[in-house]
Amino acid sequence: MIETDVNARIRIEGAKRGVMLWRNNSGAFENEEGRWVRYGLANDSARISELIKSSDLIGVACGWWWGFPSVSGVFLAVECKRSGWTYAGTGREPAQLNYLNLVRKYGGAACFATTWEDVEDELWNYFTNRCGTGRDEVAHQGKRAAAA
């Protein structure tokens, strides 16, 4: 699957699961007056853009949907990649990884993704590490509540 298709699939699957994601285009162009206009997150200058490249998708994941009612929402950054991709540390990848690490450092969830399952894994890791409850335990609690 090409990156555009991965991007669309992740957005569709996320919307079904309490995750809202928006496309984050970034770049620069010279306007009619000869001034450079930069757009997209973390794209304040050419120098910053060399070091940090914001993710393809930016959004929020609702903790309550995932079985963690104490978490209202979590900032989420997803860098979409084509099927079969693996990190090689070439081209834009180091700057993209820098952005993902920055998001994580400041309390968000972030990942490279070739499928929705990559995003799902990142969110489960985020919620279980922050809330101390594992995936099976959450499912078990839901079944117990339904049976009561």
What is the compact description of this entry?
By secondary structure, this protein is an alpha+beta fold.
Task: Write a structural description.
With 148 residues, the protein is α+β, with helices and mostly antiparallel strands. It has one domain (3-147): Trna Endonuclease, Chain: A, domain 1 (3-Layer(aba) Sandwich). Helices cover 41% and strands 20% of the residues. The protein is built from 5 helices and 6 strands, in the order H-E-E-E-H-E-E-H-E-H-H. A 4-stranded mixed sheet has the order 1-4-5-6, with helices on both faces. A hairpin with a 5-residue loop joins strand 2 and strand 3. The radius of gyration is 17 Å and the shape is globular. It starts with a helix and ends with a helix.
Bin the helical content: 40-55%
CATH topology: Trna Endonuclease, Chain: A, domain 1
Class from secondary-structure proportions = alpha+beta
**Strand line-up in the sheet with most strands:** 1-4-5-6
CATH class (first level) name: Alpha Beta
Based on the structure given, which CATH architecture is correct? 3-Layer(aba) Sandwich
H-E order: HEEEHEEHEHH
Mean pLDDT: 87
> Can you tell me the residue ranges where pLDDT is under 50 for at least 5 consecutive residues?
138-148
- The number of distinct helices, counting runs of at least 4 residues, comes to 5
Taking the sheet with the most strands, its summary is: 4 strands, mixed
Rg, Å, rounded = 17 Å
Query: Strand tally, please?
Result: 6
Give the overall form: globular
